[in-house]
Amino acid sequence: MKYAKSIPNPDEVVHSLYMEKGWHKLKEPSKLALACVASLPFMFICGAINLALLAWLNTELFDFLNADTLKFTFRLDYLLLCIVALYVYMFLHEMLHAVLIPGFAHSDKTVWGLRGSKK
User: Fold this and answer.
1) With a threshold of 0.70, does the pTM exceed it?
2) How far apart (Å, rounded) are the C-alpha atoms in residues 114 and 52?
3) I want to staple 111 with a disulfide (CB 3.0 to 4.6 A). Which of 1, 4, 60, 87 is the partner?
C-alpha cells in the first residue's frame, strides 16, 4: 500500500472486465456544491444523533437553554483535542476502506490519500 497525492488512473483492462460482468460505475456529483447539497440530509441525521447522544451522556450540557445569561468559555486544549481527533478519525476512516480491499497490505497497487477535488 502506498500514499498517492492524486487520484490514480483506473486499469482499463480490469474496468472493462467489471463492465462485462454487469458492474456499473457509481454516479458522482459533477460539482462540489452538488455533493454538499446531496450530503445535507446525512449531515442533519448525524447531527441529530450526536445531539441526542450528548444530551443522554451529559444532561447538564443543554442547561444554558433555561439560564438567564449566556456564558461562553473557550478552551484551547479542547480545540486542539478536536483537531487531533478529526485527523485520527479521517485516518481510521480511510484505513477502514482499505481493509475492505482483499490483500490491500501486500499490494503495491493499493493507494490511500486525501484529495479535496479531482483536479
Assistant:
1) no
2) 30
3) 4
